Amino acid sequence: MIFKNNEEKRNTAWRTVMTVSSVLIVIIAAFFVVKLFTGNPMEGIWVSEDEGIRMDVRGDGSVVITQINGGEDGEKFILDGSVDKKNKTFTVQLSSESDEESPDSAAASEDEESRDPFEGTYSYSIEHDTLTLTEREYGEQTVFERE
Length: 147
Prior knowledge:
With about 150 residues, the chain is α+β, with helices and mostly antiparallel strands.
C-alpha cells in the first residue's frame, strides 16, 4: 500500500498517526472530565405537567419559569438561580431585571410575590431525566421531566 518497500517511512507515518490519535483521546477525555465536574447538572429545559410549569435553567444563572395553560405558554418569570452541588440545593430569587421593570409601590411588590409561586430554596435530586425539587421549609415536592 503506502510506502511498500520503505520501512522507515512506514514507521514515521505510523508514529504520526499514533501521536495524533493519542493527543485527540487525551483532549476528548479532558473535555468530558471538565464538563462532568464543572457543569451545572440542572441546566436545560424541565417540564412539570402536574404543576403546569416549564423551567428553563440557563448556563448564565438565569431561570425562566413559564406557566403552561392547556399546552400554551402563559405568564413568564425571569429569576436568578444558583446551584450548590455540594449541598444539593437550588436557590431561585427574583432577578434584578424583574425588579427594574416593576413599579416601586409596595402593593406592586406584594402582587409580584403572590404571582411568582416558585421563589425559594429547594433541595434537588436528579435521576435519569427526572428532577425532584423539595422545598426546604415545608417539604413539598415538585417533579420535572427533562424536555
